[in-house]
Predict the 3D structure of the following.
Amino acid sequence: MITFFLVGLTVHIVFFLSIFDIYFTSPLVHGMPPHATLLPPPASRLILIVADGLRADSLFMPLHNGSSRTPYLRSIIEEKGTWGVSHTRVPTESRPGHVALIAGFYEDVSAVAKGWKENPVEFDSVFNQSRRTWCWGSPDILPMFAKGASGDHVYTHTYPAEEEDFASTDASRLDTWVFTQVKSFFHSAKSNSSLKAYLLEDKNVFFLHLLGIDTNGHAHRPMSQQYLNNIGLVDSGVAEVVSIIEEFFNYDGRTAYVFTSDHGMTNWGSHGAGHPSETLTPLVVWGAGVQTAQRATDPQPYIDEYLQDWKLEEIRRVDVNQADIATLMASLIGIPIPVNSVGVLPLPYLNNTDHFKAQSMYTNALQVLEQFKIKMSQRKDTTLSFFFTPYHQLDCLDLNHLLKLVRLSFVSHQVSLCQSLISHALEGLVYYHTYDRFFLGCSVVLGFVGWTSYVVLLILKTHASLIRNPSILRQIPNHTLARVFMCLAVAIVAFLLVQKSPMTYYIYCLLPVPVWYSVLKESGTLTDLIHSAPSLPLWKCLSYFLLVALGVELLVVSFFHRAMLTLGLAVLSLWPFVCGIFGRSKLRSLSWFFSCLCLAVFPLMPVMGRESNIHLVLCGGVLTFFTSACFLFSLWQRSVLHPCDRQQFMLHVVVCAYVPFLTHSSLQQKQGLPLLNQIISWTTLASSLLVPLLSILLSLTATYLLLSTGSEALFPPALSWLMYVWINIEQEAMLAQGVPGRQELSTIDFSANIDISKIRQLKLDDIRRSYFFVFFIITAFFGTGNIASINSFDPTSVYCFLTVFNPFIMGGLMMWKVIIPFIIVMCTFETIQVVTQLSSRSLFLIVLVISDLMALHFFFLVQDYGSWLDIGTSISHYVIVMSMTIFLMLLSVVTHTFTSQRLALWRRPKIHFP
């Protein structure tokens, strides 16, 4: 068992990491020379203002009376500048958003998890190419651009991290701090000759990072008055800063202004996924070299209805991709475009001669082509010549000829030629970046299918009652098979060595070799299965496998549509009536029926965090209190509990249900997080992990209540009651399938060693038990929210523990909240394994096959999808399933010990559910 566990864990970790090597690799290449337009730029300096977390509709939407909450920026849109919507990419988080804005490329998604203050990879940026850059704002964003810049020409001014407090009286003070610092900076520069000399030079950038809107959105939601008032404060602050800057530079007309946002925000105050409220951000550009407002004479080519809602249908709108903004900023002040940029210069924003626009586009084309040539060269060097397939749209021999044609073309044609060249070069970059994706995907799928086949054969060999026929010899002797696979491994290694492949390629390509060797070694089991076929209930087997296949498909669809879990629970509720259990135990069958229907309500409810309702948390506390009372009453006559223990736990549940209410009230009154509430919360969390209370459910529910913000507080009691009924009804199912020796739960000693002589072989009904387990695991994950989407995580759920922004502690607490229902289901399954007289390994192997089939399904979905958003969604689902499988493998070893030791810890002979 230990050997199988270690091998299986290694294989699944490889499968888990493979998705990152195949899809989440850095797109950056190095070694390109910078390119800049040689013509004089229209602006000497650039002011970049990023309102973190600002939605496009929140800025552009007028008030009910027709006025605007942002009168200054509205006047810019209508008279002095050009506006549009900046389309961001998933994940809509601060770090990748700012990298796209300032560096012009879409960062490797996994870099989000590597920290906000460190750079996982080196990259070029507008700040790095500028003469000098001054930044004011958050300590989570500014340092990474200062660290990535060559030399010491990026100056950062940040407030303490403790100021990013979601419980603060008014988070707009963060933006006020930035505006005050900028005004003080220019005021002091008037009397500081050296600083003034620096400021009067060209190619300078000033970056204002405004975090208040994002913080208020998380704390109070984007429709709150705090969020909307903060937008008005930013508008007035921008107007004041612009006035001071223009005065400082004597109104020389050489300053360009860019106002935008890194990402938007959902109505429930989160971001990270691909909802339009997160991906549509405002862009307003004005000043030197920028086109003034243009009237739209014809209907504008946008299929959305935003123009009518925003009352801007008469003013030309110019949408861009977020990475295009870096190219625009570089062009305005005449600095080289960041060498890693994939942005395309949005010409409608420029107010300059056709010659300048053509030269700027030519520079943009050169910069992108440099990346394409480096990427192509790298790929060619690591691929055998007869295997290499170049990108058909751009032949390396014709690149110089193409550029020469562009230079000699008329200005009117030069722009269109450059745009076409950039488009093909960007497609070529994607082509070479994903060149090995199909090859690696095939290797992983081959290993996946081989591993699943091996587990199925292992189940048939060791846990099924097949007719063994020792006289049948294997067709291929073991030593011959070993030699064949050894030669295959050597050939693979030689091929990868010639291609100079990375080390991870060896793992993915060599892993199928021992896996399929093990499969072919067990080919005799297939012979035994064929030999046993006449004695098997074939129709029953086929019907079981068909139902499991449909069930797996339902689970896969439920990752995209949570309502499918409701359908599944409704079908499961009928199980006792279909299988004849109702005639044996009407009470347990009806309890199962109503428990499934109660739990089926949760996937139909809004995702947790979208609507905070502290009264539902109190209801969850009452339901938990009632469940606890029933539990304690069931133990009253057995004298298992000391009266002091009963009183202690009941009081603890009441306190944990009331603490979120007190915290919520305190935050609403702008009084911050009470210290006593924080102490109670952290103490409860620690005690639930280190000193289990009465049972697995009751030791974790108190923590779950503290992490709840609404209806999800009702979920653990409903789930646990269904789990309790499941344990009991499985005993009736054992009698229905003819397994004798049923034992009452109250007489089972779970802390004792299992009698090996009572362990039975697998039956078809055990496939159903394993599927139920996987179904309930998925329900535990998705019952209260779509955790595959980043924007389902609501920071308000951790406010009982902390309110100062700390992404890793907050993320850890929210993940623990997700895992608590998972543990309840896992421990229930361990109990069923004991009750049904099965070894942990036998049921676990079936679970492993089901979860691997789901993961393989998602892997194929990733291959089929074309859009980045769809790929990202399927990848996140694959990662969740693989994480679940690895977690199951770990817990399968420790769960039985955990349930036993917690009893010994409290010196109680039995464990009871719920």
User: Anything to note?
Assistant: The beta strands are 45-51, 81-87, 132-137, 154-158, 204-210, 255-260, 280-287, 320-321. Residues 438-534 form one domain. The first strand starts at residue 45 and ends at 51.
